Known about the structure:
The complex is a heterodimer.
Chain A: H1 16-20, E1 36-42, E2 48-54, H2 56-59, E3 64-68, E4 93-94, E5 100-106, H3 109-118, E6 120-125, H4 132-136, E7 148-156, H5 159-165, E8 168-176, E9 188-193, E10 199-203, H6 208-219, E11 226-230, H7 243-258, E12 262-265, H8 268-274, E13 281-289, E14 295-307, H9 313-322, E15 332-341, H10 355-373, H11 377-384, H12 404-415, E16 428-440, E17 452-459, E18 465-469, H13 478-490, E19 497-499, H14 518-545, E20 552-555, E21 558-561, E22 567-569, H15 570-579, E23 585-591, E24 597-598, E25 603-604, E26 610-622, E27 628-638, H16 645-665, E28 670-671, E29 674-675, E30 693-699, H17 721-733, H18 744-757
Chain B: E1 5-12, E2 15-22, H1 27-34, E3 53-56, E4 59-62, E5 75-77, H2 90-97, H3 107-121, H4 126-133, H5 144-156
Parallel strand pairs in B: 1-5
Antiparallel strand pairs in B: 1-2, 3-4, 3-5
Helix pairs in contact in B: 2-5, 3-4, 3-5, 4-5
Amino acid sequence: MENLSTIGQSLSRPDAPEKVTGKTRFLTDISVENMVHGAPVYSSIPFGKFNNIDISKAEKVDGFIAFVSAQDIPGENQVGVIISDQPLFADKTVRYIGDSIGLAVAKTPGAALEAARLVKVDYDKKSPYLSIDKSRDATGNFIHKTNLACHHRLRNGDIDVGFAEADTIVEAHFKTPYQEHYYLEPQACIAFPIEDGRIKILGSLQCPFYIQKAVARIFGLPNEKVLVEQAPTGGAFGGKEDIPSEICARAALAAMKVGLPVKVVYHRFDDVQLTSKRHPFQMHYKVGVRNDGTLVSAKILLEENAGAYATLSTVVSYRAAVQAMGPYVIPNIHVDSNSYYTNLPPTGAFRGFGSPQAAFGHERMMDIIADKLKMDPMEFRLKNIVKPGSQTQTAQRLNESVGAEETIQKAARLAQWNSFNPDRSGRYKHGLGMSAIHYGNCLGAAGWHMDGSGVNIKILPSGDVHVAYGLIEMGQGAETVVTQMTADALGIAPSRIRVLPTDSAQVPDSGPAVASRNVIMTGNAIRDAAKKLLPVLKKAASELIECHKSDIIITNDKVTDNQSGVDVGFHELCDFMSRSNMSMEFTGWWHTPPLEYNAETGVGEAYFTYSYATHIAKVRVDTLTGQVFVDKIFAAHDVGKAINPAGIEGQVEGGVAQGIGWAITEDFIMDRGVVTTPNLSTYLLPTALDCPEVETIIVEKSEPDGPWGAKGIGEPSIIPTAAAIANAVSSAIGIQMNEIPLTPERVLNQLNKTEIKK
Amino acid sequence: MANPLFRISLTINGQPVQADVPATLRLLDFLRYDLDLTGAKDVCGEGECGACTIFMDGKTVNSCLILAVEADGSELMTIEDLSHGKMLNEMQQAFVDYHSVQCGYCIPGMVLSGEQIIKDHGKPDRDTIREDLSGNICRCTGYQKIVDAIEFAADKR
């Protein structure tokens, strides 16, 4: 029989028609009756204490309603998601320009902003820590109890023995910068008081259950008293992982105080100054290698600028440490990954979550070593790449779904790596650069305790099927793949399926919608629900058709008795079940497999499986101006199984664009804690002219624990890009470029320095 | 002191509209908050991103850079009226078929800029589309599938 399953087909997005007609109501587009507006009041100094908050001028603003601050909190004044170091409203001490002091509430957004600006705070200033180096070297007057926010380590093998065995030892230092998410829809939510004392939140958000817990903590309420719904969300990229928790909690306090729905939409300047960004890293790599190109030993120090509060630094630091040497076999390795507090905006989740930074370190290092050994960078990588049966740097044995080698080979073939031989005599220097990565799927050993997700599948009498899930659609295409996977699991047409907006009341706490985990978690939960649902459908069908239930087949939207050939439509079966008063609702749940991991040594199974990718960048450097042009990106990704190939291409093309921004155009600058690039004329997001055509190559090494064999793609798409570009530029101009962004100024400076030395 | 109001008369999506507005009101806010036409988005507020794109007298403009009083006497079309009552026009259908949409926040502006590109160039090549699209920022897609859709829609017309 012909199989009409859409798994592996590029089903178009169910949410697209409303988005192209402007009908989609994003959170910022929603108004409700009696709604008032909140605007943040925040610290104007990077570090110090305050004594008095004077709202007398703010109160005179036409439309002013209330001012909410620490004294309004009935529960715990704390929003730290992992380390409890962050008050919701600063309690006498402020630690960055943007640290929260209060929320001004007024009848209009303009009046709220004006009132917020007129709140006067008296400060006693302290000398701020504005860099990793200053923070690390401090001897007192710390930002918190200490300036070290967190630390992860890996101790595998004996690096001294390893370095003794090495023929060549190479050391290098790398620096990667901030990156601002610049999701197009700013942070936004509406908090509603409910008469019985419950609170409802509607938000532009990634993690409804983080918000639920954060708001409950602030009020001292049980979690279930807080209801969280997601509105259509205009981009997130990690920036709406933990940050909405604090924004929603402040809005909720205001809503309960004034007894009205309170909407908070961050003005773009506030959004950029107040909210989290990608961690800047400084990295020191020392790697030993044999003459034949075999890696034998590595000592790696990663130092991260965590900003004023730890937020998600512990898990960013963990991921970077685990992936610090990339998808290569290396028997002896020490990694230290240290996050330092500074008096700067907190850094946290951003697509890749420490991986793009670590990838910049290991992939620049691979090219520098290859150059020293006079080896082809691809051959050097292939010599050391992990294969089925290999051990990772954390001594985790990889058995199946290891497509690293194939991604290198396929990308290289398409890019004509071996025949690239540019003429470098002119003004424009051409270069080709490669970068290979692995990415641990889902939350890994550090987050295993919360790595479970659920669905609730409801069959309606009409034959429609409603799917509620605990993760979310933020543009990445979750609704589309959830539709495809549910349709395939039940053997019905995708058109029957409606994926409901995420609502904390519909599904148990499914953890955060992060770590590229939606396809794996929700897909497996759908399979779990289908396992319970299919026997019920078959039993009902056998009663309807009057046959044996083991003869029932449900496929291609038809319910068939395999013996007689009699069939009925799926909707007829649903109608029969409804009339027969049968159960029509089924839940599914999946938790990632157990991991053997030693947190002390960092040795063991860090993640249950890995995605692999190789990017090759083709660049052109204008040696007169220093400008770098990316002419092409070849991107090969091992995704296990492509549920929706066009969706994967979309993720890859978008991830590459963000990688190009981080590598070249996005130069995030602060002056004593004030962001001096808060807008799009100073912070340059890549345009259609900066982004090249991307050739996406899909590699499918089936993952046994992945639904239909699938693995994550959202984050792997950005991880290799910047390193591939830096490798290509370094090769083009013959100078090792170990710091990004590769702005014209930086490239020209390096060219001039080298010219002077000559 | 009360903010003085000015009477404006204009045509929006084929309908005559009259309103009394303060001189400081941006056209974008007039559309979004006074008329509840929320397809145009407020992203950068300074004409860099194109998310607030609308048609004004037959040409695309950034509605965040225009005051409502400046639109007096003009004819506006927003994304809400592009398909003229049909479900989707060709450009919109191409965006759906070519998987050009992710979060969707930039998309109303992208679709309208696509219309302007066809008006200006007929059947443009990809480089021309990229050049003319460079005033519209997308943070999700990397633009490739948006260029695909505009190229296809142009070919079809």
